[in-house]
Design a protein that fits this description.
Blueprint (H helix, E strand, L loop, with lengths): L10 E2 H7 L4 H10 L6 E2 L5 E3 L1 H15 L4 H9 L2 H33 L2 H5 L6 H10 L4 H14 L1 H10 L4 H13 L3
Helix pairs in contact: 1-2, 3-4, 8-9, 8-10
């Protein structure tokens, strides 16, 4: 019994654009810069994209959602897996720096506003509000201490980031983290 050959799909530019919620001009641009070239052309010179092209576009879109530039995406797609991992790690580090910078800006605005009623209606969480949430959840000082110990032990960098996001100054953060490390099991 002969094996059946899988039928490969062929996509026109508008079909592929609609499938990924992109504009036709985006795909034309990707073709122009060599990021996504169609696998073929019809007799009337229309672009035709294969399943492999669709899968490449899926990867491109996934990497775009990380905020990578098209230039970086092109190099990632051509690189071995270990270079892809390095590029993603660099992007994650850049995002962490951006988040830190945005939190600093947020805290500066909070300090400038000084009007707690304005801040109460925002997504800003400061130390006072966080402690109030923990107390409302039934945590006493000992339980909050254990929370810090567990956070420090399981994810020290995230603990640092979280404390910074509350607008706690560097000296107090260092004291909290040192206490948590010293009181770890």
């Amino acid at each position: 019994m002969a094996k059946k050959k899988a039928i490969e799909s062929v996509y026109r530019i508008s079909q592929l654009a609609r499938l990924f919620r992109l504009s036709r001009s985006t795909l034309l641009y990707y073709d122009r810069i060599g990021l996504l070239r169609p696998s073929g052309r019809t007799g009337a010179n229309y672009r035709e994209y294969s399943d492999a092209d669709r899968m490449r576009l899926e990867q491109i879109c996934r990497y775009r959602r990380t905020g990578m530039s098209l230039e970086t995406i092109e190099s990632v797609l051509a690189a071995p897996r270990q270079k892809t991992v390095k590029a993603l790690e660099r992007r994650l580090e850049a995002l962490n720096r951006e988040i830190h910078d945005l939190r600093s800006q947020q805290q500066t605005i909070v300090e400038l506003l000084k009007d707690k009623s304005v801040i109460a209606g925002t997504r800003v969480m400061d130390k006072q509000r966080w402690v109030a949430v923990l107390r409302a959840a039934g945590l006493d000082d000992a339980a909050m201490g254990q929370w810090h110990v567990a956070f420090e032990r399981m994810s020290p960098e995230a603990h640092q980031d979280f404390l910074e996001s509350l607008g706690i100054d560097a000296t107090e953060i260092a004291e909290i983290r040192l206490w948590a490390a010293e009181n770890s099991d």
